[in-house]
């Protein structure tokens, strides 16, 4: 468990170094804010290391907001870490700016030789393209411009990025969450493409914190969405939770979001899958319990794919 006495901890993502140590990067904000709803606009990216995902050693923050004016001078949010062919590490992250009141999200990156000291690259590198995605403005029925939570992976034809986005259209607001998509040959220049999923009556207002991971031979797309932001049809079906899983095939050509099924847990959000000693585990942050925000990472929970759902092992 990763719990900080003076900071809330929430979204997290992971990397394993050459010595087999597990690094976690996570969003953090001071509990001195008192109101947990204020944490998003004060978030920085923390860093800790562990041999087993249970006992953590806190390290200096990986990244904080940039000096103004900049596209990420308000807060830095969720991302992912990949390793380049050169051996250098690259951290993709979300940024929001003060100029827009933190309402417009963009994606950039930073690089490191040791996973400890990070240097920003010129950015942003990915923004919501109005040809495919909803932009901030009147009549959208939503509160922000979604382009965040980059999950980057290497495919047979280059690098791919999945990100949280929303389709522009006449559908109800809580059905327009989609899996955004961009591609790159070098991790520097990105081409934004159309979404890999479509708005759906059994869909979600937000398809947050996506991840691809293979469990028991099956590729899964993991994401999260609060029950209040799920579609009316999804809630009527009773298939709601906080974390959802969709079986997919690679190369990833599309995602049928209607096939998403919840991973059952009493208090877990923005969960991630990670492998430890040949076992897949899921980790997320403890969300609200008894109406109060907790803000700490769980211990790893062993999981398996039963052919239809991701379940505890």
Automatic annotation (TrEMBL):
<keyword id="KW-0326">Glycosidase</keyword>
<keyword id="KW-0378">Hydrolase</keyword>
<protein>
    <submittedName>
        <fullName>Beta-fructofuranosidase</fullName>
    </submittedName>
</protein>
<dbReference type="Pfam" id="PF00251">
    <property type="entry name" value="Glyco_hydro_32N"/>
</dbReference>
<dbReference type="InterPro" id="IPR023296">
    <property type="entry name" value="Glyco_hydro_beta-prop_sf"/>
</dbReference>
<feature type="domain" description="Glycosyl hydrolase family 32 N-terminal">
    <location>
        <begin position="18"/>
        <end position="236"/>
    </location>
</feature>
<dbReference type="InterPro" id="IPR013148">
    <property type="entry name" value="Glyco_hydro_32_N"/>
</dbReference>
<comment type="similarity">
    <text>Belongs to the glycosyl hydrolase 32 family.</text>
</comment>
<dbReference type="GO" id="GO:0016798">
    <property type="term" value="F:hydrolase activity, acting on glycosyl bonds"/>
</dbReference>
<dbReference type="InterPro" id="IPR051214">
    <property type="entry name" value="GH32_Enzymes"/>
</dbReference>
């Amino acid at each position: 468990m990763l719990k900080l006495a003076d900071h809330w901890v929430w979204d997290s993502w992971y990397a394993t170094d050459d010595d087999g140590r597990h690094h976690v990067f996570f969003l953090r904000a001071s509990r001195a804010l008192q109101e947990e709803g204020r944490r998003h606009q004060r978030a920085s990216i923390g860093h800790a290391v562990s041999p087993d995902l249970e006992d953590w050693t806190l390290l200096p923050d990986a990244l904080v907001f940039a000096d103004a004016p900049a596209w990420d001078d308000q807060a830095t949010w969720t991302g992912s870490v990949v390793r380049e062919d050169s051996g250098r590490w690259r951290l993709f992250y979300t940024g929001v700016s003060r100029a827009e009141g933190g309402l417009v999200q963009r994606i950039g990156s930073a690089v490191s030789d040791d996973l400890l000291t990070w240097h920003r690259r010129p950015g942003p590198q990915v923004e919501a393209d109005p040809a495919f995605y909803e932009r901030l403005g009147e009549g959208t029925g939503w509160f922000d411009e979604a382009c965040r939570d980059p999950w980057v992976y290497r495919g047979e034809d280059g690098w791919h990025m999945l990100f949280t986005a929303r389709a522009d259209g006449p559908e109800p607001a809580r059905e327009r969450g989609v899996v955004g998509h961009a591609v790159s040959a070098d991790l520097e220049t990105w081409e934004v493409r159309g979404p890999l999923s479509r708005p759906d009556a059994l869909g979600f207002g937000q398809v947050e914190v996506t991840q691809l991971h293979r469990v028991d031979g099956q590729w899964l797309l993991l994401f999260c969405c609060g029950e209040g932001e799920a579609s009316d049809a999804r809630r009527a079906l009773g298939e709601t939770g906080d974390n959802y899983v969709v079986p997919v095939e690679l190369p990833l050509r599309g995602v049928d979001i209607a096939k998403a099924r919840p991973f059952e847990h009493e208090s877990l959000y923005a969960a991630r899958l990670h492998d430890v000693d040949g076992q897949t585990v899921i980790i997320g942050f403890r969300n609200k319990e008894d109406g109060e925000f907790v803000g700490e990472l769980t211990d790893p929970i062993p999981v398996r794919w039963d052919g239809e759902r991701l379940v505890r092992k």
